[in-house]
Amino acid sequence: MTSLTKHYPTIEDAIGRTPLVALQRIGAQDNQARCNVVLGKLEGNNPAGSVKDRPALSMIRRAEERGEIRPGDTLIEATSGNTGIALAMAAAIKGYRMVLVMPEDLSIERAQTMKAFGAELILTPKSGGMEYARDLADTMVKQGKGRVLDQFANPDNPRIHYETTGPELWEQTEGRITHFVSAMGTTGTITGVARFLKEKNPAIQIVGAQPREGSRIPGIRKWPEEYLPKIYEPRLVDELVYVGQDDAEDMCRRLAREEGIFGGISAAGACWVAQQIAAREHNATIVFVVCDRGDRYLSTGVFPA
């Protein structure tokens, strides 16, 4: 950084401290009757458009501090989309070559965004899902083609949510939060936030959104046992709620039309779960993560043309 710019913030400084907003119409009558409030954490406000901006920069920064990587190295990561975009941005900031391995059926917007940040893409067969992509990334590392940060096993993923996202929620709700709802993919968000909130108040309920059998919801996964993320701490999650694809997609449209919140499908799935919790609770402050923006799902058909 030159002497002329050192006093100004950089794009890294724009990550985090995202708004927390109350839903005003969806479920409003029942929530008022039950004295509940449902709040969305707008992680799409991060510069690369998702909650994954936090761990992407964290994983690179911490690996640099440990001397494991240095600018100019090649980084490889298997991704379903948002982490890939965030890592592509972080690699551009820090000066790394970024190779992303992803299933071929993911939205064209996400692939184009990764390329815009300078990342190289390797598309894997749809039939293999994320499991095949993860296996291929590991094989490439063994062949000496680069280094995997491994969002699924890297403690720097949940660590950044423990250090930033959790404290933000505690401060923004003035300690009133009673339930935290997150879609579960790599499980970094739910693990890190849960660890922080449980230290503040063990009574806070941590709820994970999982896909119902047969549902394909980008960003929400129910992993086979052998692929379960190593960073996941089941003891921190009080409840798993299963959401169907139709329910998530319908809520995605409702959030845009009724609340003006243009979120993605997994964010809507978490909102649907938050509404199920609100329907059974009283005097609750329920927070769900709006993990990304809806514009990266336009080609999927979830929004009417």
UniProtKB/TrEMBL annotation:
Aminoacyl-tRNA synthetase is among the record's keywords: no
Cofactor field: pyridoxal 5'-phosphate
N6-(pyridoxal phosphate)lysine: residues carrying this PTM: K52
Domain Tryptophan synthase beta chain-like PALP: 11-292
Source organism (scientific name): Paenacidovorax caeni
InterPro entries xrefs: Cys_synth (IPR005856), Cys_Synth/Cystath_Beta-Synth (IPR050214), CysM (IPR005858), P-phosphate_BS (IPR001216), TrpB-like_PALP (IPR001926), TrpB-like_PALP_sf (IPR036052)
Pathway: Amino-acid biosynthesis; L-cysteine biosynthesis; L-cysteine from L-serine: step 2/2
PROSITE patterns associated with the record: CYS_SYNTHASE
GO biological process, one term: cysteine biosynthetic process from serine
Protein name per Swiss-Prot or TrEMBL: Cysteine synthase
E.C. no: 2.5.1.47
Annotated SUPFAM superfamilies: Tryptophan synthase beta subunit-like PLP-dependent enzymes
Family the UniProt entry places it in: Belongs to the cysteine synthase/cystathionine beta-synthase family.
Binding annotation for pyridoxal 5'-phosphate: N82, G185, T186, T187, G188, T189, S266
This protein's UniProt keywords: Amino-acid biosynthesis, Cysteine biosynthesis, Pyridoxal phosphate, Transferase
